[in-house]
Write a structure and sequence with these properties.
heterodimer; A: two-stranded parallel sheet; 4 helices; 5 strands; 55% helix; 18% strand; B: alpha+beta; 7-stranded mixed beta sheet; 22 strands
Chain lengths: 111, 901
């Protein structure tokens, strides 16, 4: 397996929101999609996903609904809410600013 | 928005906890199954192997579940659960403290709940009927007068037939005592007379059979009756056979057609009924009920048509008024007829129903509520003191928890949980105490002549009040100790030196302020209680103008609304009554007997305006005079002294000159010189002026609290029809109630038809003072209770002070201080606290006792004597409570005190 980076604190929520914003998913689906969109570059402890999902649900950013999965089992699907989209946008901007600043800073050190 | 989502999610998790847990498990299992499936497909593992790997990859399922619960906001709840368990354990370990606190709070919260449940039942609750908020009471508004709620039957019929604003409108008469005859036994039941659409408009359903309907209420109707549910249960054991059976009410046979819904007590809060009959059937008791235009015995309520605004309703009723009023015009002089015709019909919202009880007891109940709330507050302060003392013994425990990482907020929360657990347990017991004591209060309030019914069943308001009281008291008693005890420095606590100086001083300072506050509050309660108690005593010992001991009152007449049931015509009744008087007078133990139309503080009254020739004398409504018809010997029987002139005697007959004996007030007011003998006055219904032949001392007429009205006594021998003197007063030399069987026997021989009712004159007076007795004793009791609690608080704080200053006192004594100087030192503290409390208390009392104004009699709210006595009592008790610990301070042995360090 390719080399994996540890998750920075606070980024899991952002990743989940991003993953769910691409379409409603159950918990395992969210995991797969994060692996997919990150190219498997980030290490996520699978169980840690769930407290994060519940936290987002509790904050009204995700809207859960029980439905049937591809393999015909009852599963809990998460859909992003309007508040969730707003949060995703705000957090994405914040992340970009931070990342930009970090990149600039680190490059300056190298030179 | 986010908050709402949080609340919703929290609500789901808390109240559907098991479903939430199930879902969480299912979701995680689903995850593992999917992962295992993928592992089988992608890496070719066996299913068992795949499951094992999936579990490993997932991590600790239980840990993530726990984190998941925390995410859902359940952490707090789980901690609370633990705190409550811990609190219960602590309570069990410290039994004396626990019991004292729980019992104090049970009584305190219980008393508050009891008074509140009365307020709820009497003042807040809507009528237990269909859509009570739509109901209105119909009233008559005289021009420039107060709105009245009484109607004659003629007015009721005019309103019923002419109105077009109500979808339903009904009349009823306040429940009256009916004579129920069953199998030779006669007993009084509460009879309600209702118009035909009463039950239908209220939307009351029958529990059995049918209720009175429109068709039952027309002139000459058959006599049918409906039983109340509770009467059906108690008197017929709920037997279906009661339907269709016959009962005798006021000596008329009625057929039972149905039973009303359980819990339905009518529309008047404070009253209930046993049987209900249609209005038209009241003609069987007395024809005049329906025909007289002077009997204002009905009340009217209605449900306005849907969509009608209150303005539209008022305008329409005003428009209809002239034709309604002229259809029911009674007689009287021109001015009175004119005023009657200009009266308008009005309607006011009445979702809680009209209530005499509410009118009379509304304010006293609010006052009692304030008193019990104060008592609870004082009790809270004591318990807070105890908690504080206990917290200091737990200083080590708190410090260790703090050292182990519990935050201060977490510690405060845990300690608050402890105090709230105490108060919740107290409130639970208090609820039981409240149920009992509220019922007791209602029983105390009721008299034989004025039974009171209050539906005290629990509702959400009472339960909510108790719950709120529990939480608030819990926080009040717990917050200060919790904040204070967690403020301690770690090191000091763990070293546990008994004299962590600054904290102890701070605690003492706080303790002193609390006690000063308690003293102030209790002074307010003592003064208030004193005023009400003195009001009651003043009324009880008032010279009423007659001697009420050993006088039996025999009421030998049917009530006014059932006057026709006595078959003997009035002309013959007078002779029969004379015979009863003669034979009762001959009984051993009887000193004298007389008859009267009404007896002092009785149920009947008779007012008329008189006119006199004296220039400048009152006239019109200013000249209203109370009347009574009495036989010779009435004044000597009641021991009302004759001031001048003569008593009535055999000379005064229908043919002789009309004469009167008047009281001093009448003589003074109408004839300025106190002696009115030989003067005359006119009564509108008599052609010949009435000559005054005697003057008697003033005596109370119908109510103890009202000023004595000008009163004229006319001889029974000259009374017109309707003024028959059919109440006997019997003065005895023995316990007067012992004569009842003898009198019953004599009356039955003379006229078996006569309804008889007995009570003593003292009972009549006592019944009129029920409210004052109850308020006086309760307020006095709460005052004493508050005082006792404040003294316990003072004693507690001083004891603590003395114990903790032992070393100081020891040193002082070793250095030569005398016992007296130590005593002075401690007593100076007591005086300081007492003075602060008294000053604040007096200021607070000045403001609050003015609210009592209306409830007082014979004294003003700022009554100096009451205030002085209260302050003296309080000071004496405070000095005593302070002296005990102070004396202990002087007994400190210097050596022992010094060694203990």
């Amino acid at each position: 397996m390719a080399q994996q980076a540890d998750l920075l604190p606070g980024t899991l929520d952002l990743l989940i929101l991003k993953a769910v914003s691409l379409g409603a998913q159950h918990g395992y689906g969210v995991l797969l999609r994060i692996e997919q969109i990150t190219g498997g570059a980030l290490a996520i402890e699978q169980g840690a996903l769930y407290p994060a999902l519940y936290r987002l649900e509790h904050q009204g950013l995700l809207d859960p609904e029980w439905g049937t999965s591809d393999n015909n089992r009852r599963a809990k699907f998460y859909r992003i809410t309007a508040a969730g989209r707003r949060r995703l946008k705000a957090e994405t901007e914040r992340w970009n600013r931070t990342a930009l600043a970090m990149n600039t800073a680190l490059r300056a050190e190298e030179a | 928005m986010a908050l709402l989502a949080r609340m919703r999610s929290w609500w789901r998790s808390v109240f559907h906890r098991s479903a939430m847990e199930r879902n969480m498990s299912e979701e995680l299992q689903f995850h593992l199954a999917c992962r295992a499936h993928d592992l089988v497909e992608r890496r070719g593992l066996t299913p068992d192997e795949a499951m094992r790997v999936a579990r490993l990859e997932f991590g600790s399922i239980e840990k993530y579940k726990e984190e998941g619960r925390a995410s859902l906001g359940l952490e707090l709840l789980d901690q609370l659960h633990g705190d409550v368990r811990y609190a219960l354990r602590m309570l069990g370990r410290n039994k004396v403290f626990g019991a004292a606190a729980v019992i104090t709070l049970a009584l305190g919260i219980g008393a508050n709940t009891a008074i509140f449940s009365l307020i709820d039942a009497v003042m807040l609750r809507l009528l237990p009927i269909d859509k009570p908020e739509q109901l209105v009471t119909v009233l008559l508004q005289e021009p420039k007068g107060k709105a009245g709620d009484g109607f004659t039957n003629a007015l009721w019929e005019a309103i019923r037939d002419q109105q077009d604003v109500f979808s339903g409108v009904f009349a009823w008469s306040t429940p009256k005592p009916f004579e129920l005859g069953r199998g030779g036994i006669v007993q009084a039941v509460r009879g309600l007379m209702v118009s035909g659409n009463y039950f239908a408009t209220l939307g009351v359903a029958p529990a059995a059979g049918r209720l009175i309907a429109e068709a039952d209420d027309r002139r000459g109707c058959p006599a049918v009756a409906v039983l109340s549910h509770s009467f059906w249960q108690t008197h017929f054991a709920g037997a279906p056979g009661a339907l269709g059976s016959s009962i005798s009410l006021n000596r008329q046979i009625f057929q039972v057609v149905g039973v009303s819904a359980p819990r339905f007590f009518g529309v008047e809060v404070g009253k209930t009924f046993d049987v209900a009959i249609p209005l038209c059937a009241s003609a069987l008791f007395d024809r005049r009920n329906l025909d007289s235009r002077f009997r204002w015995w009905l009340r009217i309520m209605g449900r306005p048509r849907l969509g009608l605004t209150s303005d539209q309703l008022a305008r329409r009723l005003e428009l209809l008024s002239p034709s309604i009023m002229s259809a029911a015009l009674p007689g009287g002089d021109a001015a009175r007829r004119e005023r009657f015709l200009r009266t308008i019909v009005v309607a006011t919202p009445a979702s809680r129903g009209p209530s005499e009880l509410r009118r009379v007891f509304g304010e006293p109940l609010m006052m009692l509520m304030a008193m019990v709330a104060f008592v609870l507050l004082i009790a809270c302060a004591n318990i807070a003191g105890l908690m504080l003392a206990r917290a200091s013994t737990r200083a080590k425990e708190i410090a260790i928890r703090n050292a182990l990482g519990a935050s201060r907020g977490r510690l405060i929360r845990q300690m608050l949980t402890e105090s709230i657990v105490v108060s919740v347990v107290g409130a639970g017991l208090g609820l039981l105490f409240a149920r009992w004591s509220a019922a007791l209060l209602v029983r105390e309030l009721a008299t034989a002549r004025n039974p009171i019914f209050i539906d005290l069943s629990l509702d959400w308001r009472v339960l909510g009040f108790t719950a709120a009281a529990a939480i608030v008291t819990g926080s009040v008693i717990g917050l200060m100790p919790a904040v204070r005890s967690t403020r301690m420095s770690l090191i000091a606590a763990i070293k546990s030196s008994p004299s962590a100086g600054s904290e102890r001083r701070a605690r003492l300072r706080a303790g002193r302020w609390i006690v000063a506050g308690q003293i102030a509050l209790s002074l307010v309660l003592v003064i208030g209680g004193g005023l009400l108690l003195r009001t009651f005593i003043t009324l009880l010992t008032l010279d009423m103008g007659f001697d009420r001991s050993n006088v039996l009152v025999v009421i030998a007449k049917a009530p006014w609304f059932a006057a026709d049931i006595v078959k003997m015509p009035p002309e013959q009744r007078s002779a029969a009554n004379d015979e009863v008087v003669a034979r009762v007078r001959a009984l051993p133990g009887v000193l004298s007997v007389a008859r009267a139309f009404t007896t002092p503080i009785g149920d009947d009254n008779w007012f008329t305006n008189i006119s006199v020739d004296t220039p400048g004398a009152p006239s019109g409504d200013q000249a209203s005079v109370s009347f009574n018809f009495v036989t010779p010997g009435y004044f000597s029987t009641l021991r009302t002294p004759l001031v001048a002139g003569r008593d009535f005697d055999a000379r005064d007959t229908k043919q002789s000159v009309p004469v009167a004996i008047v009281n001093e007030t009448l003589a003074r007011r109408f004839f300025s010189d106190a002696n009115g003998i030989g003067k005359r006055f006119r009564k509108p219904d008599r052609p010949i002026p009435i000559e005054i032949v005697g003057i008697v001392k003033d005596s109370k007429y119908q109510f103890v609290r009202e000023p004595i009205p000008p009163t004229a006594f006319l001889p029974a021998s000259q009374a017109p029809r309707g003024g028959e003197a059919e109440e006997f007063v019997v003065r005895t030399s023995i316990v007067s109630s012992g004569l009842i069987p003898e009198i019953q026997r004599i009356a039955a021989q003379v006229n078996p038809d006569l309804p008889l009712e007995f009570h003593t004159l003292a009972e009549q007076v006592d019944d009129d003072l029920v409210q004052e007795r109850l308020l006086g004793t309760l307020a006095g009791f709460f005052g004493v209770l508050a005082l006792a609690l404040a003294m316990i608080g003072l004693y507690g704080v001083l004891s603590y002070l003395v114990t903790h200053r032992q070393i100081e006192f020891g040193i002082r004594m070793a250095l030569g201080a005398t016992r007296a100087s130590i005593l002075r030192l401690v007593m100076r503290d007591v005086l300081l606290v007492l003075a602060t409390g008294v000053v604040v208390g007096l200021a607070a009392a000045r403001v609050s006792v003015t609210l009592l104004q209306k409830m007082l009699f014979g004294l003003q709210p700022d009554d100096a004597a009451t205030t002085a006595i209260s302050v003296a009592l309080l000071s004496m008790m405070a000095l005593a409570a302070g002296y005990l610990p102070a004396r202990r301070a002087t007994r400190v042995d210097p050596m022992i005190a010094l060694r203990s360090e």
